[in-house]
Design a protein that fits this description.
The structure holds 2 protein chains of 2 kinds.
Chain A: H1 2-26, H2 30-61, H3 68-91, H4 99-126, H5 134-156, E1 161-162, E2 171-174, E3 177-180, H6 181-203, H7 205-215, H8 227-252, E4 255-256, H9 260-275, H10 280-300, H11 306-320
Antiparallel strand pairs in A: 1-4, 2-3
Helix pairs in contact in A: 1-10, 2-6, 2-7, 2-8, 2-9, 2-10, 3-4, 3-5, 3-8, 3-9, 4-8, 6-7, 6-8, 7-8, 9-10, 10-11
Chain B: E1 3-12, E2 15-25, E3 30-35, H1 41-48, E4 59-62, E5 65-66, H2 72-77, E6 81-84, H3 96-102, H4 110-123, H5 125-129, H6 140-154, E7 158-162, H7 170-185, E8 189-194, H8 197-203, E9 206-211, E10 214-220, H9 221-226, H10 228-234
Parallel strand pairs in B: 3-8, 3-9, 6-7, 7-8
Antiparallel strand pairs in B: 1-2, 1-4, 4-5, 9-10
Helix pairs in contact in B: 3-6, 4-6, 6-7
Classes of the chains: A mainly alpha, B alpha/beta.
Bound molecules: adenosine-5'-triphosphate and magnesium ion.
Adenosine-5'-triphosphate (ATP) binds near residues 35, 37 and 86 of chain B.
Chain lengths: ~325, ~240
């Protein structure tokens, strides 16, 4: 408890300092600063939700699921399919549902179905390679990603899809700062999901098994724990969070295309590394930090320079903390 | 007969570690396998727990059931064979209580779990005091108690013990073996592998001597302790 509390306090102070530094260095007015801060929170939510999946899978199975960005894409499309379908059913008068209910159903069902996509990827892509060199698994991940992208292309064609607008955007003016209900909802739900995941991993026996597996893979079966179930669960949870991110992304930027997961996925992967492989808290914090850096760099410098500068900053941080913020010291896997 | 192992052969990447060993354990017994470094003691226990594959031709039955029909987690959860692995292998990032709880992952008998937990705490009161402490911060002796307690929680029929005496001071070792004897009296059959032959032969009723992957001697503990070769090789003259 003491250690965890220290970590949380340390993180909060760290984040506050970074934010304060950016504020002072940028010379922005407080109003535009807060405006960017809100945008960064939303932008960071996507990275954080996706980074969690990378980090969990790495923690439990010691592999990076390089198809994870594409699972985010699949989640967005599944959400799009469900939402579009439900809207169409409502228009024909077959199943008229209020928009908020469609939204809730879309999020829940898309998370549910996408988790099965993730479990399928684990089952056919990674499980046969558990004893193989890690590079094989990485290559497999990249291939699965390509299959998901091109599969989507083959199935739905190259045309972009528009996510139906389910919430009427309302803008609130808090002095000179404007906030939309969509933004608040996205940030709030993202935080809620992260909190839920944290509780799951802390409090349930499945979460306990995940933590045990992260510590010492080989002896977990001696506890009567079916490892394959836990592996599948880990992929399922990560994919469900990616699906949520995909839907939130679709709501905020309502254009979907099959390659939308690549860049976002890689950046979330960077966040997972920055947070410390296997650390849930780290992945969430680093996801938000990445959002902050990107948004503020874009606000201060020409936007074409955004990623060059943002990722140079990350590179610099990783030079000093190669294991990320909360990299676990025992991540070297124990063997029989 | 509770456990019967016949012609067990195991290799690691083409190198044979067990050359077809056979032995039995009866219900309620305490049996030991003694042998030097690298004799294949841990390999034997890992094969029984199905953590590592055996070669074709190997036979292992438990209560008449073919052990090869059970994956590692089912050996624990369905057959009730627990395993205290070499080097304890606790989950250092989990608390004492979480380590014990995790071992009951597949169990559905809530009442029994409570009873087993009480048994563990009565055998090792130290663990009760340290429930909320991370397992990684326990002393060596406490870690061994937790390793045994955790095994008890995972299954009660039979316990495989891999060098529980390792790294323990004599006093601690004695009290650990006293606890193991109590566990055996409560109905748990014990198969112990040890380098510490003196301790093992005092504790067990019967034993086998394993040398570079083959069983070379077997007998009651008294017979083995009196055997001149055992005396010379394992009991220091
Ligand atoms: N994971 C492994 N990979 C390759 N060889 C192994 C592995 N584990 C054990 N061996 C080899 O198998 C043989 C038997 O090892 P085992 O660990 O069963 O011995 P042991 O009797 O338990 O020894 P100790 O008393 O030192 O624990 C040894 O020659 C060892 O080098
Ligand atoms: Mg050994």
């Amino acid at each position: 408890m003491g250690r965890r509390l220290k970590i949380v306090i340390f993180s909060l102070v760290g984040v506050t300092l970074v934010v304060a530094f950016i504020f002072l260095a940028s010379g922005m007015s407080p109003a535009s600063f807060f405006q960017h801060l809100l945008n960064a929170l939303q932008w960071g939510s996507f990275y954080a939700l996706i980074a969690l999946g990378y980090s969990m899978v790495y923690g439990v199975l010691m592999l990076f699921n390089f198809a994870h960005g594409d699972i985010f894409m699949v989640g967005a499309y599944i959400g799009w399919g469900i939402a579009t379908g439900l809207v169409a059913l409502g228009m024909r008068g077959i199943l008229p549902l209020p928009n908020w209910l469609i939204l809730v159903l879309t999020i829940l069902l898309a998370m549910f179905f996408t988790s099965f996509v993730g479990m399928l990827v684990e089952r056919v892509g990674y499980r046969p390679l558990r004893e193989a060199p890690r590079a094989s698994a990485a290559i497999t991940g990249l291939m699965i990603g390509i299959i998901l992208e091109t599969g989507n292309l083959a199935l739905l064609g190259a045309q972009r899809r528009n996510f139906p607008s389910l919430i009427k955007t309302q803008t609130y003016h808090l002095g000179p700062v404007t906030v939309t209900n969509v933004k608040i909802m996205i940030v709030f739900l993202s935080l809620l999901l992260m909190f839920g995941l944290h509780q799951f991993v802390r409090r349930t026996k499945w979460g306990m098994a995940m933590r045990a597996m992260a510590y010492d893979f080989v002896v977990v079966p001696l506890m009567g724990v079916p490892m394959n179930t836990i592996a599948a669960l880990t992929f399922g949870l990560g994919s469900a969070l990616a699906a949520a991110a995909g839907i939130f992304f679709g709501i905020a930027y309502p254009v979907l295309e099959p390659y939308m997961g690549i860049l976002v996925g890689w950046k979330a992967f960077v966040a997972a590394i920055l947070g410390g492989r296997g650390s849930i808290l780290g992945a969430a914090l680093a996801g938000f930090l990445l959002g902050f850096i990107e948004i503020f760099v874009a606000a201060i410098f020409p936007s074409t320079l955004r990623d060059v500068i943002a990722y140079s900053i990350i590179l610099l941080i990783l030079t000093f903390r190669p294991h990320g913020f909360f990299g676990e010291p025992y991540s070297a896997r124990l063997r029989l | 007969m509770l456990l019967s192992v016949e012609n067990l052969k195991v290799s690691y990447g083409g190198i044979r570690a067990l050359h077809g060993i056979s032995f039995q354990v009866d219900e309620g017994e305490i049996v030991c396998i003694i042998g030097a470094n690298g004799a294949g003691k841990s390999t034997t226990l890992r094969a029984i727990s199905r953590l590592i594959p055996a070669e074709p031709g190997s036979k292992m039955t438990y209560m008449g059931k073919d052990l090869f029909d059970y994956p590692a987690d089912k050996v624990v959860s369905e057959l009730g064979i627990s395993h205290v692995p070499e080097g304890r292998r606790l989950f250092g990032n989990l608390t004492v209580m979480e380590n014990l709880k995790l071992a009951t992952f597949a169990r559905k008998d809530g009442k029994e779990i409570e009873r087993d937990l009480e048994l563990v705490f009565s055998l090792f009161p130290r663990l009760a005091e340290r429930q909320t402490q991370k397992a990684g911060t326990l002393s060596g002796g406490e870690q061994q108690m937790l390793a045994v307690g955790r095994a008890l929680m995972s299954g009660r029929k039979m316990m495989l013990l891999d060098e529980p005496s390792m790294g323990l001071a004599p006093v601690l070792m004695m009290s650990l073996f006293d606890a193991l004897r109590d566990i055996n009296k409560e109905g748990t059959t014990i198969l112990l592998v040890e380098q510490n032959a003196r301790m093992a032969l005092q504790f067990a009723q019967r034993g086998y001597v394993l040398e570079t992957g083959s069983i070379v001697l077997e007998g009651t503990s008294e017979e083995l302790a009196d055997n001149p070769e055992v005396k010379k090789a394992y009991l220091g003259g």
